[in-house]
Amino acid sequence: DSGVTQTPKHLITATGQRVTLRCSPRSGDLSVYWYQQSLDQGLQFLIQYYNGEERAKGNILERFSAQQFPDLHSELNLSSLELGDSALYFCASSVPDGLNTEAFFGQGTRLTVV
Amino acid sequence: GDSVTQMEGPVTLSEEAFLTINCTYTATGYPSLFWYVQYPGEGLQLLLKATKADDKGSNKGFEATYRKETTSFHLEKGSVQVSDSAVYFCALSDGPGSGGSYIPTFGRGTSLIVHP
């Protein structure tokens, strides 16, 4: 058990809808990362938050947004969903981030858009 | 930008065979290098890491050596077991980037299947 909790584990929704994925980092970790894993793109970095502030952005679509709350849990919001958004979404946390820092991953949320 | 390239899978081996999964990287700075493993239905977990040239990371019989001259970090194991069947990801951490961040960059993953 990594200590990172993601809910829900599975989500099936229709095109055009909006969903929210939730992540609780390990106790004491200030940094949260979101990744999207798909068969053709591998593991793509979406966005990082550190202690409530956005710290870095990767290949995140404008239809997607995230936030980190005062209790350090984070939510990833996906809107106007398309079939191509179907993927496994991972949250990871670390103490803060650093060159040698290990990232701890949750089990992921599998999103299926139909 | 930074990138990680690893050999495509799946890699299929018999139990007790020797394993090599190749990984090369491109980085603007002097990164730390990692191997993560993802077992079916689970998230990624750190397998081993190396933080400077010629360092060897090792764990559970797996090894990888940080080769700066060839920008490589190949994963090896002398004798694989069925329980090693998983997806293996090579990754690097470089930075700091804008905002002082260090973002782990991952390869696409290599699936390993070990048969009894």
Name the overall outline of chain B: globular
Helical proportion of chain B, percent range: under 10%
Order of secondary-structure elements of chain B: EEEEEEEEEEEE
Kindly state the percentage of residues in helix of chain A. under 10%
Q: Multimeric state of these chains?
A: heterodimer
**How many β-strands of chain A, per DSSP?**
11
Q: Which whole number gives the mean pLDDT of chain A?
A: 93
Find the biggest chain interface.
A-B, 27 and 29 residues
Largest sheet: number of strands, sense, barrel closure of chain A:
7 strands, mixed
The count of helical stretches of chain B stands at: 0
- H/E element sequence of chain A: EEEEEEEEEEE
Number of helical stretches of at least 4 residues of chain A: 0
Q: What distance lies between the first and last C-alpha atoms of chain B, to the nearest angstrom?
A: 41 Å
Beta content of chain A comes to over 45%
What does this 3D model show about the protein?
The complex is a heterodimer of chains A (114) and B (116). By secondary structure, chain A is mostly beta strands. Chain A contains no helices and eleven strands. The termini of chain A are far apart. Helix content of chain B is 0%, strand content 51%. In chain B, strands 2, 5, 6, 10, 11 and 12 form a six-stranded mixed beta sheet that branches. A four-stranded antiparallel beta sheet of chain B has the order 3-9-8-7, with no helix packed on it. In chain B, strands 1-4 form a two-stranded antiparallel sheet. With 116 residues, chain B is an all-beta fold. Classes of the chains: A mainly beta (114), B mainly beta (116). Chain A binds chain B through residues 2, 4, 33, 35, 41-43, 45, 48, 50, 55-56, 58, 90, 92, 97-108, and chain B through 31-32, 34, 36, 41-46, 49, 51, 89, 93-95, 97-109.
